[in-house]
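User: Hey, my collaborator sent me this sequence without any context and asked if I could get a structure. I don't really work with proteins. Can you help?
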Amino acid sequence: MTILDWEDLPRYTYDDYVQWEGRWELIHGLAYAMTPPPSIRHQSISQHIASQLERALENCPECHALLPVDWKIDEETTVQPDNLVICGEVENLAYLSKTPTLIFEIISKSTAHKDRTTKFKLYEKEGVRHYVIVDPFENIAKIYQLQEDRYSEVLDAGNDTVEFDLGKCRLLFEFAKIWV
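Assistant: No problem. I've predicted the 3D structure and written it out in structure-token form, which is a compact way to encode the shape of the chain:
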């Protein structure tokens, strides 16, 4: 019996990624299919997050709430966070090249491990200030904040209201409103 070594897996680049059909993420040259499509519950929570972020940022000219968009970190890593906030000028219309300030990932059975480990480490390394892992099965959002280049868990939010410091502005986020 032969055990497959990670080094034997095919590696891809952004040029490969943009040719693929369907939804994919590329992390350190490895392709991750974003299938099956998000559930209705996942989409509902994402919509509630997006609308709340949009309202909370109305008076902040520096920061913008976005739905899944390509964040090209380097030639071998492009991800699509479920919901995010980017502060400052967005320079490229095809993809983000700047690190988001706040990311929400809504886990599913097929993405839970990747969101809790692979993306956790990636976002930490890339300097995402706030990372929120939303569990729609438990109605809990684990909130992490970057402190001295490491994530520290701030809170397991259920029905809590949390203030996020985005640098140029702050936003109050009511987690009770996303589970509706």
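In plain terms: The chain has a mean pLDDT of 94. You can pass these tokens on to your collaborator as they are.
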